[in-house]
Each structure stands twice: as structure tokens, then as C-alpha cells.
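CHAIN AND CONFORMATION:
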Amino acid sequence: MKITVVGGGSTYTPELIYEIVNKNDELDIDELYLTDINEKRLNTIYNYGQRIIKKSGNDLNLMKTTERKKALKEADFVLLQIRVGGQEGRHNDIKLSLKYGMVGQETTGPGGFSKAMRTIPEVLKIAEDIKRYAKPNCFVLNFTNPSSIITQALSDHTDLEVIGLCNIPIILVNQSAKILNKEIEELSYDYVGLNHLGWLRHVYEQGEDKISELVEALIEDSEVYRAENIPAAEIDLIRSLNMIPSPYLQYFYFTEEIIEKLRTQELTRAEEVIEIDKELMKLFKTESGESLPEKLTERGGELYSRAAINTMNYIINNKKKLAIVNIKNKGTIDSLEDDDIIEVPALIDQKGAHPINIKKVEPHLLGLIQIVKAYERLTVKAAVNKDYNQALWALNTNPLVKDLVNANNVLNDINNTFALKLK
């Protein structure tokens, strides 16, 4: 069993290595191959990973290369976690959005659009290599943001078996279990939406819906919700929803106040992450590998590796267990196309992820899902075709873009800053 990580020089990778060695009695992975275009970062992560494996006593074979095709050869699973333009590109995305009075964030609004436009062409090149060099039945697990759009692009333009993953759903489910003082296996849940636009609608314990209790816990302590940017005076508006929304919905629900907070921050999140990454890379050069650095919690992405390992485990061992993933709709939400990528609970077995039937989606959720999905599909088309007009109307469709003039202005800046060469 061979796993390849494209973007293996990421500071997320050590957590993934820890998860693999801790679960490898069940997974039986022989080889973990890291590949990255940044050789210096790759070497640091590889050396630290070797120390992790040595401390664990596991016989996992860790490999590295800057030659992507070599890393992909005969891979059973490929994990995509790349960032085209790096954190510097993310910083520009944030500042360009705020310049025009719009949300400055890497996966929503103009920032997410900008990242998608420069990432989709690169991901599709990687997909060609996966198709050519990996095993014919290789599974692609995508963490590259904006995950919903990237997974949609891979689904639309390749015949690879692609599953989009995110740590937010598993965090919400884990926190619900913690509040209820239960193990996750003791609960069932109902979740619906798109990546970074989803709602935990119901959590059942022995058939009894506990969502109201969880919402009240959220209102009492916003840290439970992991949405510290939500204005304290407004968080109780979630009570009227009686669901637990993804933290990213704060950008849609409390737009103006969030924009003001982002404008007044001394550093962008990208600048913060640059400094965190520098410190982490220093730690990875010196620490023994006995435990992950505490600093890693500041990086974000908590439980991302757990989502990846669980998914692989369910496929490898035909577990037929539920996980919230990004996959084709296939009639799950009536008002969307069958090939629209959605984020819902799915039964995962050796053949992949299969969405389970969900109850009818409430109108106030469905309306936002439909418009954001339209924006995502238009963005994929614009990136593939390098078409300025398609890009303009994709941006204008995004509910976080204020009007067509703003869409045109920010698109010109994005096009020039990142040399997209739109026609």
C-alpha cells in the first residue's frame, strides 16, 4: 500500500505521519512518499518524519522527491495539499478583497476566487500525472483550498475517484460528542451543505435529537464553536437557526462587522501563518519526534489528518462507516445537479464514498447553497477556459461580492497581480 502526499513540505504533514504510524497496524501502509517543489522544506519535514517513525517503532518506509511523477508511480492514494502562490499569495488575496470593502479570506469571497483561479490549472496538471502514473483505481483525497471548488474541478475534468476532505465537520462532530459527554460512535448526525458552507442540523443520541442543547452550549461559550470572530452580541442569533453552522458562515451572516474586524487587524492571517510556519520549521529541525510541537495548534487544520486517515481506513478495510466528505450530489439534494460537489455524510467502503439520503433542505439553507454552487461552477469554467467574462460573472454571482463594478475592479487587480492572463 503506497500513499503519496503532493505538498509534502507542508507543516501539516508531521501530524499526518503521526496518525499513520499510530494506525498502521490497521492500515498496513508500506510506503509514504512525500513530494514538493520546495526541496528545503521537503527535506526538513522528511527528516522530522523519519524521527517520528523511528520513535514509534513502526516499519513505515518514508520517501521523498521533488520529482512528482516518481512519487506518484503505483500510488494507491494521493493526498493533495498544495498552496499555489504560498502564504504571500494568500496575503495579497486578503488585502485585495479588503481594498474593495469585501471579506478578505482565503476560501470565501474574492480571496477564495483568486486562489481557485490560480490553483485549478495546476491541480489539473497534477491530475494528468496521477492518471498516468498512479494505480488505475487510485483514490485522490483533496485538502487543497478552496476545497469545494478544487474538488469540483477535478470531478468535472477528470475521471479520477476524488473525495474532498475538510477538518471542520469532524471538529463540529467531535465537539458535539464532548459537550454531550459521549463517544462519537454513540451519536448519529445530519449535516448538509458545501465545503465551508455547511450546517450540522441534527445530532442524535439513541434517537433523541440533541441539537437544541448543543446550540445553547454554543451560545454560552463561543469557543466551543471555534468562531471567535463572531460578534458576541450577535452569536445568539444562531438560536433562531437551531443548527450549528460552519464557522465560515460568519462571513455571510455577519459580513460588515467581520470586514471591519479584518480591516483593523495589525497582521493578516497569512502574515501570522508565515511567522508560525517559520517557528515550526525551526522546531521540526531540532525536535526528536516524540510528540508534535504545541506550536502546531496555532497553525490551524486541527484534525485534518484524522479525516484523511479515517477515510483511507474505511476504504482499505471496507469499513462501511459514515464520514462527512465532499462528493458528487447524485440526487442527494433535489435542487442541485447530480454532478455538483456537496458536503454531506457518506457511507465509505472499498469502492469509495456514497452519499446517504438526507431530509429536505430548508429554504434559507438551500438558497445560499444554490447561489454559492453556481459561483463555484462558473469559477471552474473561468479557470479552465482562462475567460475574463466568465470570471467576471462568477465573481458577480458570489454573494460576498457587492456589485458588478466591484467585481470588475477586483478581477482586474487579481488578473494583474497573479498574471492569470485571462482573455
Notes: The chain has 17 helices and 13 strands.
